[in-house]
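Assemble and predict.
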Amino acid sequence: MKKRKTPSKAVYTAAAIILVLAAVLLVNRCSSGAFFKMTGPAQKSAASGALDAGDTFRSFQSIFSVKSGIKALKGQNAVLENENLVLTAENEKLKRNITLKSYRELRNSVVCQASVIGANDDGMLNYMVIDHGSNDGVSEGDGVINQDGVVGRVIKASQESSMIQLVTDTKSFISARVLRSRLVGILSGESYNRCLLNYIPKEEDIKEGDVIVTSGLGKSFPEGVRLGQVLEVNKKAEGLSMMIRVKPFVNTLAVEEVLVVKKRQN
Amino acid sequence: MGNIRKTIALWLILVFVIFLDNTFYAINRHFHYTDLILVATVLLVLSDRAVSALVFAAAAGVLHDAFLIPYSGFSVLSGVLAYLMALILSTSLYRENYSTKVVIIGICCLAKEIIQVLIVFVFYSNCRLFIFPFAIVIMKIFWTTLFGAVIAKLLEIDYGKAGKWLKLKTTYTIG
């Protein structure tokens, strides 16, 4: 009897593969896409999961890039801060120089120290009388200040006494500057411890609390002597200028000692 | 003779009042709300010394203008107009009553303040609007009236030989 030859394992494996492929092709043709229909949601969720995973990955990537950006910005900020410090220091130095200059100018121009011996401070006509006159070097037009700022201006000098028109008198006009914005205007008295800053156009930058100092453009006062603080800004006033109400630093009802500063001759 | 002595004493007091008025700031600035000149003028009018009151008001005004402000006439005009107001009120009201005297002082002070505001507004600030100093005016009226009330009460007291100072003159004629 003839012995039968048994097929090798490789033949079984190849056949199994062919069968599986055939079965898949058969099922696909019969179901006309039912397989994909069944696998769609799973595929979708899988895909979305993959997308989410990709986004997360990209987020991580962007976090890293943002971190590196922040690091770069911090570096730039540090540089700018340094520059700012340098500029601030320079600004302070310039300010000090200006103040020193004005103080030096003030110190050089002080004529005398005087006491107030009389005043018409009824809120309408604002005048004062001091106990120094032309014999002490006081002359008409000299500025009068105290530790708080500008008090007024000498309008009449007799031998032994002088009359001062206070900064709050309605006929007092002093060239003034807004310290923050460097705007120049004219400060006029408005009686009863109030003043008005005139000729500042409505579009200019000025706000409550701004400090007003002398501009140095007038002859009576050197630059930088304190005048007052902005109390109220009214941009709806008639005309081209704002109505700026200023409260003088000097309380004209409580002045006792003053310094007379020489007016500029040129 | 007694009247002459009293008149001299009165004018010495009035000169002292002028001195005080002009030096109040140096002496004590907290008193500057009290109008001594007005009180003295009204009290002189109320004691039938109309001419003396006019002379006093004008002289005090002239000195105040000369010493404290560079515009002559401001205090003289307001002082004399206040004097006229006192004269009109004292002739038209029953002034023997103490409270009427106080009211006359208050009204005269108000009139003086209004006149001063008008003078400043028209002649000084060229009709330019400025803050009307209500607070100062009210304080002045209050303190002046209070001070005037105290002085009027003191003058009503009979001081024996000196008599009542508010009725200094023996005759009741204006002069």
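Chain B touches chain A through 26 residues (CB under 8 Å).
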